[in-house]
Specification:
By secondary structure, this protein is an alpha+beta fold. It contains five helices and five strands, in the order H-H-E-E-E-H-H-E-E-H.
């Protein structure tokens, strides 16, 4: 309760601020306007290949700010040891290098090239300082790319549904034709009533 009251009265920034954001900058020039904290990523069973490095982390903290016409992104990845943090750092540097070399879009490539990775103790810091104008451009590009991917997935799903419907219609037509053929091949059974004649001996006339 005392910690809560201290935060409410402005005497303390956050109950667990330094714990959750150990490598962040809180000065007035940081321009911080967003922060997020995630833990338990190692417990997630299914992660995309590009995100499996998060299984080596204890927690991930993300901060976003704007100052001096720059967008400042800082990600802190906490691990269980200095050895693990060095491993995570090297993997991140490799991912950044590969992405930078294979990215066709110049804005995104420039953004990735601004990334800096540093291992400090058992934590890893990923920082990006990028001009606001350029950030607006690549955000638009990224949005267009995401919309295009969504449209492509919808078109693919619609095409698959169309193909499935056509196959179902073909299967139904084949089943109906087979039933008709079976009916034509089966001989008709008819019953007729007749008189039963009996022969017997009668008196001679």
């Amino acid at each position: 309760i005392e910690d809560y009251l201290a935060v409410r009265d402005g005497k303390k920034r956050h109950i667990r601020l330094e714990e959750r954001f150990p490598m962040a900058s809180y000065d007035a020039n940081s321009g911080l306007f967003f922060g997020a904290y995630i833990e338990g990523m190692k417990e997630v069973e299914e992660l995309p290949v590009q995100a499996r490095i998060l299984k080596l982390t204890e927690s991930v903290a993300v901060q976003l700010g704007e100052s001096a016409n720059y967008v400042n992104l800082m990600m802190s990845l906490s691990t269980d040891s200095e050895t693990t943090s060095k491993q995570v750092s090297e993997v991140l540097k490799g991912i950044i290098a590969v992405f930078s070399l294979t990215q066709a879009n110049e804005d995104l490539a420039m953004l990735v090239q601004q990334a800096r990775v540093e291992a400090v103790g058992s934590s890893v810091a990923l920082t990006i300082n990028y001009p606001v104008d350029s950030a607006e451009n690549w955000i638009g590009v990224l949005g267009d790319k995401m919309r295009a991917e969504i449209a492509a997935k919808k078109a693919k799903a619609a095409k698959e549904a169309e193909i499935a419907a056509e196959k179902a219609a073909e299967a139904a037509a084949e089943a109906e034709a087979a039933a008709e053929a079976a009916a034509e091949a089966t001989p008709a059974h008819s019953t007729s009533s007749g008189q039963v004649q009996s022969t017997g001996s009668g008196p001679a006339g």
